[in-house]
Specification:
Layout (H helix, E strand, L loop, with lengths): L12 H11 L4 H12 L5 H6 L2 H15 L3 E7 L6 E7 H5 L10 E5 L2 E5 L4 H7 L5 H12 E3 L2 E2 L7 H14 L5 E6 L6 E6 L1 H27 L3 H5 L3 H12 L1
Antiparallel strand pairs: 1-2, 3-4, 4-5, 5-6, 7-8
Helix pairs in contact: 1-2, 1-9, 2-4, 6-7, 7-8, 9-11
């Protein structure tokens, strides 16, 4: 399960519009794989599906860094008083926790028993999201990603305490798969951990930027008669100058 062999390139304006158009209305899992295929064109779709969630999100972070920049301005709402809070993250700092191990299974000790764990991938999550509730989803993940020795463990073999502990161990093996940010509300003092999902966050940014791009293309095409391709091939700086002149 090898990671990208070549440096990730940022999305061009045309590529941004293309991936946005293809991904609108689709599940975040599908959107993540769309982004991976653009970032890593040398990888097959089947190989990308086998990447762990941490590896997947590391690639999306790299794509975001090269497309928009390293600095992330995030937002969270206090669960106690509903006050809105802004905080900053860095793609580079988040990438420092990516796991580079190529090993598929990792042996660990859990309550005196030896088990092997495999970090979940997109195929595992695709099955888990079909579950009726979070507990069933967890059991699906455990049935696929936990085994005793060479024999696969049945999800039903784990009680709730064991299941929660093993799910936690899976998170430890792939820390970038679930990024939790310590947040404190300045209004009421409430402290909690906010989940940061790079796929959802980056997609929302692409959505906003793509809509703005379409508006710019419409304005410049009507004003100067240029084609969409000609406008999208311009640098963002040049396109912005023409938009200012067209609006003046």
């Amino acid at each position: 399960m090898s990671m990208m062999q070549q440096p990730v390139q940022g999305l061009s304006a045309a590529a941004m519009l293309e991936v946005w158009e293809q991904g609108e209305g689709r599940h975040p899992l599908d959107r993540a794989l769309l982004l991976l295929r653009l970032a890593c064109p040398g990888q097959s779709f089947e190989a990308l599906c086998e990447w762990t969630i941490g590896q997947r999100d590391a690639c999306v972070l790299e794509l975001r860094r090269h497309t928009i920049g390293d600095r992330i301005e995030a937002y969270a709402e206090c669960p106690a008083c509903r006050n809105g809070l802004e905080f900053e993250l860095s793609c580079t700092e988040l990438l420092a926790s990516v796991v580079t191990s190529e090993a598929t299974w990792t042996a660990v000790e859990q309550d005196g028993r030896s088990v092997e764990l495999r970090r979940p991938n997109s195929r595992d999550l695709a099955l888990a999201i079909t579950a009726a509730n979070p507990e069933q989803a967890r059991r699906i993940i455990l049935s696929r990603c936990v085994r005793r020795g060479a024999v696969d463990a049945e999800a039903a073999a784990w009680d709730d305490a064991d299941g929660a502990a093993l799910a936690g161990r899976l998170g430890e093996l792939d820390p970038l798969a679930e990024v939790l940010i310590d947040v404190r509300c300045e209004m009421c003092g409430q402290q909690w951990q906010a989940l940061f999902d790079i796929v959802t966050f980056f997609w929302n940014e692409l959505h906003a930027r793509s809509r703005r791009l379409v508006q710019e293309v419409d304005l410049l095409a009507r004003t100067y008669g240029w084609t969409e391709g000609e406008i999208l091939r311009m640098s963002a700086q040049r396109r912005g100058l023409y938009v200012e002149m067209a609006l003046s």
